[in-house]
């Protein structure tokens, strides 16, 4: 029988739920500050602000990483760069509501990919939930009538697939197992910023960070600070704080409410009007991803539970899965 959640654990729920809300609003924030010409510039500025803080806070632990851990985290950083590129270009070319709901398919894609890699069959209930989510995305992108999905919708779908690759790589790469979460995130973000910096210097890749910054108004700077401080620094440190006071699974469950917040923010603040087909699709995505996550979590818990006669206490981990600094 699971132990009841402590009062301190319940107190930890509120900041984590706030992180989910902040991440849900990050798609609107990205749309507010980014254009097709400034995607790379905004990414360099956003994470260029964050990286020195992470390095300063975790300098001693960074120095303790082995060479293999540095290389593994650097490789993960390349995948992370791809995620942010797909997400940011996608957000520019679709609505904030669509972006937040389509990216939530990661919660369905990851168990599917994991089961394929391990040669394990998923329950029929999960496959039904996955089908519900995919049908929801199909309807969501047809809010104004049946048309081809936009380029932005397809980019967000690619970002969801890239997030799945990132999660599986973190779980399966021997070189990064046991690495400190803060150090691992810092090296990954450093690798991603290096990729953005190289790309932004190439001809035809848009405005430079300095030119984009010079053209920013007060509203643009407000969105950029929000993305840097709240959607990245605040979110990461709250996760680290909360997972030590509750459990990784509980933190993950609360963060899974992100698409709900994305839809709410997009409709209430961005004026997104998905139409009745889109609304039905949004509901199907939310129900399907929540159902699929629940089925996958139950299966994972059952697989990791030792027999009653040899049951031993579970060791808590200090890391949560997911994309750092959404």
UniProtKB/TrEMBL annotation:
Membrane-protein topology: Multi-pass membrane protein
EamA domain boundaries: 12-141, 152-290
Region (Disordered): 297-326
Compartments, as annotated in UniProt: Cell membrane
Keywords, alphabetical: Cell membrane, Membrane, Transmembrane, Transmembrane helix
Residues passing through the membrane, by range: 40-60, 72-92, 98-117, 124-145, 151-169, 181-201, 221-241, 253-270, 276-296
Broad class of where this protein is predominantly found: membrane
Keyword flag Transferase: no
InterPro entries: Diverse_Substrate_Transporter, EamA_dom, EmrE-like
Family statement drawn from the similarity comment of this UniProt entry: Belongs to the EamA transporter family.
Protein name: DMT family transporter
Organism placement in taxonomy: Bacteria, Bacillati, Actinomycetota, Actinomycetes, Kitasatosporales
């Amino acid at each position: 029988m699971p132990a009841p959640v402590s009062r301190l654990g319940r107190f930890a729920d509120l900041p984590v739920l706030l992180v989910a809300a902040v991440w849900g609003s990050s798609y609107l924030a990205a749309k507010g500050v980014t254009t097709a010409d400034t995607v790379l510039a905004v990414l360099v500025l956003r994470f260029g602000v964050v990286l020195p803080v992470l390095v300063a806070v975790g300098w001693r632990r960074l120095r303790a990483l082995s060479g293999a851990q540095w290389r593994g985290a650097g490789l993960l950083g390349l995948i992370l760069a791809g995620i942010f590129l797909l997400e940011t270009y996608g957000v520019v070319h679709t609505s904030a509501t669509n972006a937040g709901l389509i990216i939530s398919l990661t919660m369905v894609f990851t168990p599917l990919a994991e089961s394929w890699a391990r040669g394990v069959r998923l329950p029929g209930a999960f496959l039904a939930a996955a089908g519900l989510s995919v049908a929801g995305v199909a309807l969501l992108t047809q809010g104004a009538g049946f048309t081809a999905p936009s380029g932005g919708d397809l980019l967000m779908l690619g970002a969801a697939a890239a997030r799945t690759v990132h999660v599986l790589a973190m779980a399966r790469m021997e070189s990064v197992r046991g690495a400190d979460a803060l150090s691992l995130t810092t090296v990954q973000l450093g690798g991603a910023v290096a990729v953005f910096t190289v790309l932004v210097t190439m001809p035809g890749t848009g405005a430079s960070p300095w030119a984009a910054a010079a053209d920013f108004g007060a509203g643009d700077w407000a969105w950029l600070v929000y993305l840097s401080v709240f959607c990245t620094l605040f979110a990461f440190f709250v996760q680290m704080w909360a997972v030590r006071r509750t459990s990784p699974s509980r933190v993950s469950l609360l963060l899974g409410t992100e698409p709900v917040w994305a839809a709410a923010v997009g409709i209430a603040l961005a004026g997104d009007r998905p139409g009745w087909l889109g609304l039905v699709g949004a509901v199907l995505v939310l129900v399907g991803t929540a159902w699929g996550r629940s089925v996958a979590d139950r299966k994972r818990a059952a697989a990791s539970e030792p027999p009653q006669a040899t049951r031993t206490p579970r060791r808590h981990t200090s890391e949560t899965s997911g994309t750092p600094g959404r």
